[in-house]
Amino acid sequence: MPEPSIIQKSIAFMEERLKEGVSMEEVAAYAGYSPYHFHRKFLKEVGVSISEYMRKRRLTEASRCLLHTNAPIIDIAFSCHFESQEAFTRAFKQLYGLPPGRFRKLFATYFEQKGEDAVEMISPINGWFLSGGQPANYEVGRDDKEIHEGNRSAYLTSISGTSYPSEGDFATLMQQFKAVNYLDKRVRLSGFIKTEHVESYAGMWMRVDNAQGEVLQFDNMSDRKITGTQNWNHYSIVLDVPDTASVISIGTILSGVGKVWMDAFQFDIVDEHVPTTNMNLHIEVREEPMNLSFDE
Questions:
Q1: How many secondary structure helices (H) and strands (E) does the chain include?
Q2: Cα distance between residue 94 and residue 231, in whole Å
Q3: Radius of gyration of the chain measured on its C-alpha atoms
Q4: What is the pLDDT of residues 111-157, one digit of tens each?
Q5: Quick one: CA torsion of 70, 71, 74, 75, rounded to 10 degrees?
Q6: Which of 83, 90, 212, 245 holds its CA 20 to 30 A away from the CA of 188?
Q7: Which of helix, strand or coil describes residue 117?
Q8: Cα angle vertex 236, ends 232, 240, to 5°?
Q9: Helices marked H in the chain — which ranges?
Q10: Whole-model pTM over 0.85
Q11: Cβ burial 228-250 (10 Å sphere, 16+ → b, else e)
């Protein structure tokens, strides 16, 4: 299994110190780069600066505290490393469109009225559907507690009962769309994923098919699986879309038992300097038979 990238290690480093606070200089030093060069590298890969990443993550944690605790706003502001309640209010309102007190009054009341089970059983996620080998053994929904940014993440989890996921069972939260706007382009699916007790593996996936349903490009992260319990981190898949492509499929896969959360996914066109992650689906055919005696 390939080693995590320095960006992934740095994000894990920041996530572990989210409550303590960490400076850009400390993250750059951990990564082994100067602040200037690491800032550019992080911005190119993740799409936001280190300071913006930390700011959004702290505000996301603040929104969770506002909805699910009775802590005073001033205490939440200081715990999220804002120098004053006024600075916290300005930043929170800029991201969420409401001051913290109004946000808590509106949404905390809503969650209390609906209850935990009802919140998780909100209608299926718009634009996505559940598929896979044994989708009946899995559940999808939205989570307002385990979030990377914004108000909710999506989750895909195995469920216990009369039919429990066994080895080889899998499900995917996925969607499909026409390839016409991306022909002859290099595209990237990226986003943040968190896992809990994943026994087999979880990961993002993307597939490019032609009109006959033949696979032209494919990657399911099987060579860089996410297993076990992992905190939020950034992952990406990069594929070329040939001019013969018809459909692009994207999603997150969970194989076996466990739970995976998804948040802040992006789909964009990148230039040729970004390397592809396409898996080689073609089997090389030898010119002559070999090892007919089975000795090797």
A1: 9, 9
A2: 26
A3: 22
A4: 444 443 322 223 368 888 888 766 778 889 999 899 998 888 999 99
A5: -170
A6: 212
A7: helix
A8: 170
A9: 6-16, 24-31, 35-46, 50-68, 73-79, 85-96, 100-103, 109-114, 116-120
A10: no
A11: eebbbbbbbbbbbbeeebbbbbb
